[in-house]
Q: What sequence folds into this?
């Protein structure tokens, strides 16, 4: 009994102390009138400082109630308020979406934003961003127009006789196509093509969300046309082919060609959907990439609908493009899901300009990703040598640089087994490990993102724009002892 009374007394004492501590918290209005707080507000804005103060007071209140803040420390917490406000204000107002120098040699680096836009596409985005536009307005009639129409003329040059729909990425394109053509029906697909597209998103997951019923056929390494044919029944609504762009099965393997599946679909009255993925519209074989078919080839092979990305090999903004039979595309445009997946005016502007470069036959020169693909290892080595010479001329104490052969990667889940010969600048520095050098470069302003291998930091200038070389040079000079 005595123990219970003691416990109750202790709890009451703690509660009383907590209430007393809460009463000592200053009012917001008084804090805002402090000279040191007003100085921070003058630099960063009263609205931001007010929000930070409110957050700080609530944090202290919750810690007091939870018993995690020692009462004697309360004065200290409030006392260092100005320095805390200054630190938080700077951190909160510094953008986390920052430009970086991609020195990894991965052209379509997903984590770094994939394809760079052409200069003209950037200009067009800025132009429409700062003005009202004809996004859904028809100048000829003075009435409401359709945002989908803006790309029709350009895409018609690249895909004659087809219709089009644009959504916010390729996963959305596949989702819309499956929902429109396969909801409540079986969709037949090879087990070897049930890919994971990154970020733990898998084709079967997208299929389930679309309302379609997955019907797997064949095995992981071998699927024949007869497997598709046997799976077709009264509940079948669609045949699906997926280009496995981010992995490759080798050895004892076979997959039914798209041409054969398309012929089967026509014979059985079933549409064939091809998830082409990369959005390639160029002939990449001369550049050493042999396993990335062009989107046009899928349509020519008989696919009724083809889906692909805008920010991979197409060289444009993030978007999902759907190209195919006009009657099927109309069904997708009429699907209410289209509105939830639609893109904004800036995406349309960038995409229109990117497609224009392809229609003109100027993509290889105008689009940064295409230019990077075309760089020879000799030209990259020449740039690396000049950079190394400039650093050597800066005097002793700098990093040790050497040039060695290597491979650049396409990235973006494309051509997983194919690399582009390149020249790598290997970086070493006395007293610094490879991870320490990589961190120094990564935390430079602006950040230089490199890769490591064989205990060295490796810089691939293939993905470094020429006007960014000076940044790489300054970052390497900062490694001097």
A:
């Amino acid at each position: 009994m005595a123990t219970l009374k003691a416990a109750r007394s202790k709890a009451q004492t703690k509660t009383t102390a907590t209430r007393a501590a809460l009463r000592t918290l200053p009012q917001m209005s008084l804090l805002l009138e402090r000279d040191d707080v007003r100085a921070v507000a003058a630099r960063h804005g009263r609205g931001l400082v007010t929000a930070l103060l409110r957050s700080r007071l609530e944090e202290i209140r919750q810690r007091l109630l939870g018993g995690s803040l020692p009462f004697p420390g309360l004065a200290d917490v409030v006392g260092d308020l100005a320095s805390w406000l200054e630190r938080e204000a700077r951190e909160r107002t510094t953008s986390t979406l920052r430009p970086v120098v991609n020195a990894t040699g991965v052209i379509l680096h997903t984590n770094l934003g994939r394809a760079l836009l052409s200069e003209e596409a950037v200009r067009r985005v800025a132009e429409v961003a700062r003005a009202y536009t004809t996004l859904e307005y028809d100048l000829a009639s003075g009435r409401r127009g359709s945002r989908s129409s803006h790309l029709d003329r350009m895409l018609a040059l690249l895909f004659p006789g087809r219709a089009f729909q644009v959504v916010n990425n390729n996963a959305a394109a596949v989702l819309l196509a499956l929902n429109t053509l396969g909801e409540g029906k079986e969709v037949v697909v090879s087990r070897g093509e049930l890919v994971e597209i990154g970020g733990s998103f898998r084709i079967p997951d997208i299929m389930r969300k679309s309302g379609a019923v997955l019907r797997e056929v064949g095995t992981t390494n071998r699927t024949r046309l007869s497997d598709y044919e046997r799976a077709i029944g009264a509940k079948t609504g669609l045949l699906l082919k997926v280009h496995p762009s981010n992995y490759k099965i080798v050895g004892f393997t076979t997959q039914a060609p798209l041409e054969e599946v398309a012929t089967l679909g026509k014979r059985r009255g079933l549409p064939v959907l091809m998830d082409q993925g990369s959005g390639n519209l160029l002939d990449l074989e001369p550049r050493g990439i042999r396993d990335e078919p062009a989107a046009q080839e899928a349509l020519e092979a008989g696919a009724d609908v083809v889906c692909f990305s805008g920010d991979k090999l197409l060289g444009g903004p993030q978007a999902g493009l759907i190209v195919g039979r006009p009657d099927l595309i109309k069904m997708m445009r009429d699907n209410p899901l289209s509105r939830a997946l639609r893109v904004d005016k800036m995406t349309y502007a960038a995409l229109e300009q990117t497609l224009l470069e392809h229609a003109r036959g100027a993509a290889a020169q105008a689009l940064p990703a295409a230019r990077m693909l075309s760089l020879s290892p000799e030209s990259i080595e020449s740039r690396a040598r000049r950079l190394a010479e400039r650093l050597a001329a800066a005097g002793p104490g700098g990093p040790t640089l050497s040039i060695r052969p290597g491979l650049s990667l396409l990235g973006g889940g494309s051509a997983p087994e194919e690399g582009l010969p390149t020249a790598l600048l290997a970086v070493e520095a006395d007293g610094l490990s490879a991870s320490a050098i990589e961190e120094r470069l990564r935390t430079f302003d602006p950040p230089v993102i490199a890769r490591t291998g064989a205990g060295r930091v490796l810089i691939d200038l293939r993905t470094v724009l020429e006007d960014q070389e000076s940044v790489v040079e300054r970052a390497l000079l900062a490694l001097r002892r």
